[in-house]
Design goal:
- By secondary structure, the protein is mainly alpha-helical.
- The chain is built from 7 helices and 2 strands; from the N terminus they run ββααααααα.
- It has helices at 23-56, 69-97, 99-104, 107-136, 139-169, 174-200, 207-239; strands at 6-8, 14-16.
- It has a two-stranded antiparallel sheet.
- Strand 1 (6-8) and strand 2 form a beta hairpin.
- Helix 2 (69-97) packs across helix 6.
- The chain crosses the membrane at residues 15-40, 75-101, 113-137, 149-170, 176-197, 204-226.
- This is DUF4271 domain-containing protein.
- Keywords: Membrane, Transmembrane, Transmembrane helix.
Length: 240
C-alpha cells in the first residue's frame, strides 16, 4: 500500500503523514531492537572484544579466532541490521526532502531498495579491499583491515538505530537529521583513517599518497553512491 501524504483521523479530519505512524517503520525499528537484543545476549563479550582490539590496535590471529560458529552468525546479523538502518535513515531523509516519494512509492519498497544498495556497497567494498590488498599489500595486513572495517560496520548499526529512533519519534527537522548523519559519517571515516595509519603507514610510501589512496577508496565511492541515489529519487519523483 502506498504511503499517503494525508491519512484520515477517526473523525474524518485529514492529518499529515508522519514517519512514527507508519506501520512499516515501526515494525522495522522493533525488529532491529529485538535483533540487537538477541545478538548482545549471545555475543556481547566477543563484540566488546572486537571494539577493544580495534581501538588498541591489538594483533589477533583472526576476528573469529576465539569465536564460535554461533558468534559468527550473530555478528553477520549485525551487518544486515546496519544495511536496514542505513535504508531507514535514507528513507526518512529523502522522504522529508522529496515528499512526492511518500505518495508514489510504498515504504517497504523504498527502505528495501536503499538497504539493498547499502548491502551491495558493503559487499563491493570487501571485494575492492581484497583486490587492492592482493596488488599492493600482503595477505595478513589485508585480512586485518577487512576485519577492522567489518567491526566498524557492526557498531554503525547500533549508532544508526539510536539515531533513527531519535529522528523518527522526536520529529526532528531535516537539517538536524542530516547533521546527525554527517557526524556519524565523519566519525566513521576518522576511525577508518586511524586504522589505515596503524596498518598501512609503514606499507604505503608518503603521507600524501596515503591520503589520496584513502580518498579514492573511502570518500569518492560514498559521493558517487549519494549522487546515484539522488538521481534515482529524481527519476521516481518525475515518473511516479
Amino acid at each position: 500500500m502506498m504511503n499517503p501524504l494525508l491519512t484520515a483521523a477517526s473523525g474524518g479530519t485529514p492529518i499529515p503523514y508522519s514517519f512514527c505512524m507508519d506501520g512499516v517503520v515501526t515494525a522495522l525499528l522493533l525488529g532491529c531492537f529485538f535483533l540487537s537484543a538477541y545478538v548482545l545476549s549471545r555475543s556481547r563479550n566477543h563484540l566488546l572484544q572486537l571494539g577493544h582490539d580495534f581501538l588498541l590496535h591489538r594483533e589477533r590471529a583472526s576476528i573469529f579466532s576465539d569465536a564460535t560458529g554461533g558468534d559468527t552468525r550473530h555478528l553477520m546479523l549485525l551487518v544486515l541490521q546496519t544495511c536496514v538502518m542505513v535504508g531507514m535513515y535514507l528513507f526518512v531523509c529523502f522522504g522529508t526532502a522529496y515528499p512526492a516519494l511518500l505518495a508514489g512509492q510504498p515504504t517497504w519498497k523504498l527502505v528495501g531498495i536503499y538497504a539493498g544498495v547499502c548491502g551491495g556497497y558493503v559487499f563491493a567494498k570487501w571485494l575492492i579491499y581484497l583486490f587492492l590488498g592482493w596488488i599492493f599489500l600482503d595477505r595478513e595486513v589485508t585480512r586485518r583491515w577487512i576485519e577492522a572495517y567489518t567491526t566498524l560496520v557492526y557498531y554503525l548499526g547500533f549508532a544508526l538505530f539510536l539515531s533513527v529512533l531519535f529522528i523518527v519519534y522526536f520529529h526532528l527537522k531535516l537539517e538536524i537529521s542530516v547533521i546527525i548523519g554527517a557526524v556519524l559519517f565523519l566519525f566513521l571515516k576518522i576511525l577508518a583513517f586511524y586504522k589505515w595509519l596503524k596498518l598501512f603507514c609503514s606499507k604505503l610510501y608518503g603521507s600524501l599518497f596515503l591520503i589520496l589512496y584513502f580518498c579514492a577508496v573511502e570518500i569518492i565511492p560514498c559521493l558517487m553512491l549519494y549522487r546515484g541515489l539522488v538521481q534515482l529519487n529524481d527519476y521516481w519523483t518525475i515518473n511516479y
